[in-house]
Write a structure and sequence with these properties.
By secondary structure, the protein is mainly beta. It has one domain. It contains two helices and seven strands. Strands 1, 5, 6 and 7 form a four-stranded antiparallel β-sheet that branches. A three-stranded antiparallel β-sheet has the order 3-2-4. It is elongated and about 55 Å long. The relative contact order is 0.26.
Amino acid sequence: MASEQERRVLAWSDVVAAVFRDQDIKTGLWRLGVGLRFAGATTGPSDDSMLPSGIVAMESLALESVDKEGPLVFDAAKLQRRRPGAAASDTATFTSTQSATGRKSVQKPTAKKASRKTSGDR
């Protein structure tokens, strides 16, 4: 019997909005930064097919207060006005199944459009 799991892919604005709520940040422009760690390894499907490889790990997230808009800069006041759970953009949901033998398969993502209510929808 296969078990089914759901994976949600979030936009960066959704991640930053959650961090703003957690850190009680309500105003200002903030740039999102990602701390990376790099490593080298020898990997392959078998001992006869080993290749030098690079590994990149996402180690941390950082927020830096900035004065100007730019790439990965978010306005806390705008994100604060969104309802929690209201996506700023489309999200994709991946469905994966695991068979009794332990093999996993991932189905293509299905886009889920965020529903937004306007003042006329009340």
